[in-house]
Amino acid sequence: MRSTSSDSKAERLLIVGWDGADWDVLDPLMRDGYMPTLDEITRTGFRSELASTIPSHSWAAWSSFLTGMNPGRHGVYDFVEVDPKEPQRRIPISSGSIKSPTFLDSLAAAGRETRIANVPVTYPPFPVRGRLISGIAIPPGAGFVYPPEWATELDRRAPFPTNGMEWTAFEERPAELIAEAEAIEAQRTESFLAMLEGDWSVATCVNLLPDRLQHPFSRYLIKSHPQYQRLAGTELAESLRKAYGSLDHHLARLRSAAGRNVTTIVMSDHGFRAVTRRVNPNALLVELGFQSMLRGAGMKTALLKSTVGRALSRTRMGHLAKRKVRAPSVIDWSRTVAYQSGTGFGVSVNLSGREPGGIVPRRDYDRIREEIRDALLSYRDRETGTSPVRAVWSREELYQGPSTHLAPDLVIEWNELWDYKDVGGLSMRVDWPSGDHRREGILAAAGGRTVHGSVEMHDIADVAATALAFCGISPSGLDGRPIPEIAGDTGTVQVIPHAPARGSAALGGDDEDSIVEHLRGLGYVE
Do 67 and 95 fall within a single domain? Predict the structure, then answer.
């Protein structure tokens, strides 16, 4: 029988992350009795919204959660980044991509034990004072646990299932996706409970079920989707509601294991909104006259991104070819003013002296960037007459710090009911997916020091600062600020030297391929 820490008298902070959770989905479920644990937390403690990063990409948002800093300081904006050894190549983001120390480093420096499991951007695993289970996109056979010697015990007692829930492959088998999500979260909860044993001060456990089900099934879950009223009463919708009920049950078990004196935070890295149409950012830039494609580019792109092309790329010869030969560009750089530089959200000027084939003189940079912004905001879809673009930001408007130069020149926020896809025509109607990220996530807390009442909206970077303040450690130097309704008055504040950004093992070529394949299965890259 597993021993728990329910008799611990020590004050603890338990952070339960529900990737993609949104009050528009959860409120009806609490009202109808599917989520009694979350309902109790919101009634006895507080609830609010938690602002994500812009863009509300999980990799950028969870990196801000870990560091308490904006992307301009931690350097993670996307699912991929420029290969420093080969600038024309893109490689997957890893834990080594985070250029700032995390709150785990600060807790370790202060002698505090931590537990952290399944947080994105924590692979490869890195040293912590405690235990860590890396999250998201784990290559087959790779080690993903710290300390490595604890991996054997975890595998014996409660094996942690990696990856899974690749929703793009389940369009013809929706019930199987829901069953897989429930099974994986149940197994992972057993791993979380094993990890939570022993003495610790702060623990984080992340569930991915909301994100993985809301991408394909938002039309069953979000009232603003035009098909919601027709689909909400179906058998599939009921199975989705029960899946969220199982997630609520897991939350109750984690709270119980954490002990009587636990302060519990439930939060998400971003929220969700309904989607009915998609726009192709590359085709949009071509339509607006900023990007030119080589002759035959459409056929070449279709082949490379087809099922056959992807299957060939996974063969031994395909892997060898990718090591030795760059994929041929489909963009005519000699006639391109701007290009897509972030997955579905970023646009950069083809600047002379910065880009290998740059044609825009530096003196024209500001003018061209404003022309691109104005054109994107002014565009109207021919079929619907609506604008796909909600807002366009310059990177200086969003980010501050030494890594701001890594961001795209412009960052797009897509409009209500719009999403993006990098292949196909200019725009198209979609049912799968039927949801995508929005900035407004969830924040709720109860127990321990939590103050009951209404709380203003906070930023995801505030959670790291709150974890430090909860333990009596100064969060100075972070962008985030402590949430007083959670951290309370800790009295004496311990000031520790700022830890250097810790490195981690570089990804190998085969690891890069398997990570990209998983991201593709989640619809994040093409």
Answer: yes
